[in-house]
Specification:
The chain is of the alpha/beta class. The chain has 2 domains: about 5-120, 3-Layer(aba) Sandwich (Rossmann fold), CATH 3.40.50.300; about 135-215. About 50% of the residues lie in helices and about 10% in strands. It has 9 helices and 5 strands, in the order βαβαβαβαβααααα. Strands 2-3-4-1-5 form a 5-stranded parallel β-sheet, sandwiched between helices. Strand 3 (about 70), helix 3 (about 80-90) and strand 4 form a beta-alpha-beta unit. Helix 1 packs across helix 7 (about 160-175) and helix 2 packs parallel to helix 3. The N and C termini lie far apart (about 50 Å).
């Protein structure tokens, strides 16, 4: 079966560029923040229940847009059971729905999942110029409030940059949970970042929103 044109999988380059490509597609489609359904970004692994919840939400007609979007970051997080649960929706998505996904580990996905997506390769894997967000998170959590504001400044110059930055921090913070000896602070940070991600979808001061996420 050919990949549906309603489902796109962005691969290659690095995390920031894949996330930026997803945000651009959402903007090009004029999808309202209220019509975007996202996987739980704080989950290290995504199971079948999460996918079923997402499928249910996508089945509801859009509220403020012509299109409803399902956004799946780090698609490799899906368990095999969750990937199989997603197949039906990829094969027969609702007419008003587009599914956007990204991964840096396409080889971790089931072949049947890959065959249902239109793969959008951004180019060879590239880490040049890529921020090590896990190390940045560690530095931010260990810094004084004043230093935190200084470190965040380069990433919040525009709303679009802030959106990509927050999305990348969520992905990296989730990965850090696997090895965190004391995950409490990280868990709170992820909750704050998820709130920031929601707030950045509307007309707000992006610098203030991101700064507030680190008031732990």
């Amino acid at each position: 079966m050919q990949a549906t044109m309603h489902a796109f999988l962005i691969t290659g380059q690095n995390t920031q560029k894949r996330l930026a490509a997803m945000e651009k597609r959402l903007a090009d489609l004029s999808v309202s923040p209220f019509d975007i359904v996202r996987l739980p970004n704080d989950a290290v692994r995504v199971g079948i229940a999460d996918i079923r919840d997402m499928i249910h939400d996508l089945s509801i007609s859009p509220n403020q847009s012509k299109t409803k979007a399902g956004v799946l970051t780090a698609l490799e997080r899906l368990t095999p059971e969750a990937q199989n649960a997603l197949l039906k929706t990829l094969e027969e998505p609702p007419p008003h729905t587009v599914i956007l996904a990204e991964t840096g580990q396409a080889d971790a996905l089931l072949p049947t999942i890959l065959s249902r997506f239109t793969v959008v390769p951004l180019g060879p894997e590239d880490s040049s110029g890529q921020t090590d967000y896990q190390e940045l998170i560690k530095t931010l959590l260990a810094s004084s409030p004043g230093h935190v504001l200084t470190l965040l400044e380069p990433y919040t110059k525009t709303s679009d940059e802030a959106k990509v930055f927050v999305a990348a921090l969520i992905v990296s913070a989730r990965a850090l949970l696997l090895s965190a000896p004391a995950p409490g602070k990280l868990t709170k940070l992820i909750r704050n970042l998820l709130t920031a991600q929601s707030m950045l979808s509307v007309n707000v001061n992006q610098k203030l929103v991101v700064d507030n996420a680190f008031l732990l």
